[in-house]
TrEMBL record:
Residues 8-125 form the Response regulatory domain. The keyword Metal-binding does not apply. The keyword Coiled coil applies. It comes from Thiospirillum jenense. This is histidine kinase.
Length: 650
């Protein structure tokens, strides 16, 4: 702490409030004078004696700005040695650079931290005192030189040697000032990522640069005099590793220790440093000096890269990376599994080694035109394996561009779709069989009862049987057509043509057709409209495809019959508001394992011979017709309901 009223500080700022604040901070330790403009400051410096020991100078002032004032001060022989510290709200690097360029010794940004400001002023005054003492020494040397010249007029060589020594001292002082300013800029500019430090062999911090806060909540001023382990929460493994590196330094096994350490930051969690340490000897003591660099982001990027590499290596898809001319530089293991080619056989080769000959030249020209435009090409390709067999792949090829927009690599992600293609061909075959091989005999089954009905000798029971045969055959034909329609729906080729359909009529027909199954389990169907029993002559029209709607209801009722215990009631309740809602409920619950997948394809559970297509087809046909369908099952009520919402045709 300075003695009161020993050193004088001139504050130059056009804001009176700033002058008041700064005066209050400094008045206990220094004699303070103030000027509200650059012009006033220069007039004051011209007449005051002695001149101030330090000047705090604002930059942004009306009239003459701080940069100009500083130049004037440094141009005057009487004031050029006064240290100038800029105190300003301007915080851009170019502003700070210009401040040092016009002769400032420090650059402090507002708002100020009083303790830090006092510390910087004290440091600059101490440096100025040292320079003043150096100048005194220089002056004494000059006097000595004059005396030597007077006494030894003949010793020109000795005089030249003394002059050289003086020049060297002046250059050393200038280099010292420049080095100090450069170091301050360096530590400030990198304070969020780099820390310079000096500590004793016991770990006591003797010096740390600005930016200590990225290690701890402790400021760099507060850290001085404390142990590393007290102000930074090192992980136990890192602490042990750091001590071992220090031991190797002291033993002389290494001259520079380079190692990583991890610590827990109270706010930002686990972070990582790379440390570079070496020994120094200062005033008879052995100390450790070094730099710590924050590498947390680099560690995270490395971890992400390792995750990405594992994902690519373990992916169940072929991944190929090529250079800018298309030659392969990387394949993942799945590529080998699919094609039969190993890395040593394929690296450096062009992907055309897989070419099957199944695609024409136009196909490849279109692909390369897309890639050359910087776009991703997607499509299906027939390729050839190492053993000569063909296989289908769904392929996505993306060009990788550098910062100039030039292609440097191509990345291909390919999925083997041979099974899907085989299934598509199988579906086409099944469709052809169902369209021709099954529908032809069904036409005879449907037409033959019509011929028999012309016989006048048939009894009523016989006519009823013929009607049932004809109706069942027609329903079978409709179901075959519905199966063909499902395939079209899955492939996006189905054309939906809605019409007005009486859903009550369909339900009554369905109840009649399923009567034998109902009687076998002693089940009954209770059909209601708005809670009231439905009469045969009642109509309720919905907007739908008659055949698809019948197929949906048939699948849902068939499931309800299978799931219901014997001698129970299956309720079908219809509600008509803006839309028509059907609720089909039965006793029993859906197994827990299948509830989330109830409408998914091939999902079945505990049903002998079940295909998992009934509810899937119901959902698919509902989606095509714009219906909403969902299932609700309750373990508490031991009840399952299927809800179907359809647009009304009214």
């Amino acid at each position: 702490m300075h003695q009161a009223n020993t050193e004088a500080i001139l504050i130059v700022d056009d804001h009176v409030d700033n002058l008041r604040i700064l005066s209050n901070i400094l008045k206990h330790d220094y004699r303070v004078r103030a000027a509200t403009s650059g012009e006033e400051a220069l007039r004051l410096l011209a007449v005051v004696s002695p001149v101030p020991d330090l000047i705090l100078l604002d930059i942004m002032m009306p009239g003459m700005d701080g940069y100009t004032v500083c130049k004037e001060i440094k141009a005057d022989l009487r004031t050029r040695e006064i240290p100038v510290v800029f105190l300003t709200a301007r915080n851009q690097p170019e502003d700070e650079f210009q401040g040092f360029a016009v002769g400032a010794v420090d650059y402090v940004t507002k708002p100020v931290n009083p303790p830090l400001l006092l510390a910087r002023i004290q440091a600059q005054l101490a440096l100025a005192a040292q320079l003043k003492q150096a100048r005194k020494t220089l002056e004494a040397g000059n006097r000595f030189v004059a005396k030597v010249i007077r006494e030894r007029d003949a010793s020109e060589a000795h005089v030249a040697r003394l002059e050289h020594e003086i020049a060297e001292r002046e250059r050393a002082e200038a280099a010292l000032r420049e080095s100090q300013a450069r170091f301050i800029r360096l530590t400030r500019g990198l304070k969020d990522h780099v820390l310079f430090f000096t500590h004793s062999l016991q770990g006591e911090l003797l010096y740390v640069s600005e930016g200590f806060e990225f290690l701890s909540v402790t400021s760099h001023e507060e850290a001085i005099g404390q142990l590393w382990s007290d102000v930074v929460d090192w992980t136990p493994e890192s602490l042990d590793h750091g001590l071992e590196q220090n031991r190797l330094l002291l033993a002389g096994d290494i001259t520079i220790a380079e190692f990583e350490m991890a610590y827990q930051h109270p706010t930002f969690g686990l972070r990582y440093l790379t440390l570079h340490e070496y020994l120094i000897h200062e005033q008879g003591r052995v100390l450790i000096e070094g730099v710590a660099i924050d590498v947390t982001r680099q560690k995270l990027q490395e971890a992400q890269l390792r995750t990405l590499v594992r994902a690519v290596e373990q992916a169940s898809a072929s991944i190929v990376v090529s250079d800018h001319v298309g030659n392969i530089i990387y394949i993942n293991p799945y590529f080998t599994q699919i094609t039969g080619y190993y890395k040593e056989e394929i690296i450096g080769k062009n992907p055309r080694i897989l070419k099957s000959g199944e695609h024409n030249q136009e196909f490849y020209q279109t692909m390369w035109a897309t890639l050359s435009s910087g776009q991703t090409w997607r499509g299906e390709i027939v390729n050839r394996k190492k053993d000569g067999s063909l296989f289908w792949e769904s392929t996505s090829i993306s060009p990788i561009l550098d910062t100039n927009g030039a292609v440097v690599n191509y990345v291909s992600v390919k999925e083997d779709i041979s099974d899907r293609k085989s299934l598509d061909r199988l579906k086409e075959d099944v469709e052809r069989i169902m369209r021709h091989d099954l529908k032809t005999p069904l036409n005879a089954i449907i037409g033959f009862p019509q011929v028999l009905e012309f016989d006048d000798n048939l009894t009523d029971e016989q006519r009823e049987i013929l009607a049932l045969i004809k109706e069942s055959g027609q329903k079978m034909l409709d179901m075959i057509d519905a199966s063909l329609d499902l395939f079209k729906m899955e492939t996006g080729r189905y054309i939906y043509m809605p019409q007005s359909v009486d859903i009550i009529e369909l339900l009554l027909q369905l109840a009649k057709i399923t009567q034998p199954r109902l009687e076998e389990k002693q089940l009954h169907i209770e059909l209601t409209l708005g809670g009231c029993c439905v009469h045969v002559e009642k109509q309720l029209l919905v907007r739908a495809d008659r055949r698809l709607l019948f197929s949906i209801l048939s699948n849902l009722l068939s499931n309800a019959i299978e799931a219901s215990p014997p001698a129970e009631i299956i309720t079908i309740d219809l509600e008509q508001q803006e839309a028509v809602t059907l609720a089909m409920c039965n006793i029993g619950t859906v197994a827990e394992a299948i509830r989330k997948h109830f409408f998914e394809k091939y999902k079945t559970y505990g049903k002998q011979g079940g295909t998992g297509l009934g509810t899937y087809s119901a959902k698919l046909m509902s989606d095509v017709m714009g219906f909403k369908i969902y299932m609700d099952t309750s373990d508490t009520e031991n009840r399952t309901c299927i809800w179907l919402t359809m647009p009304s045709s009214v």
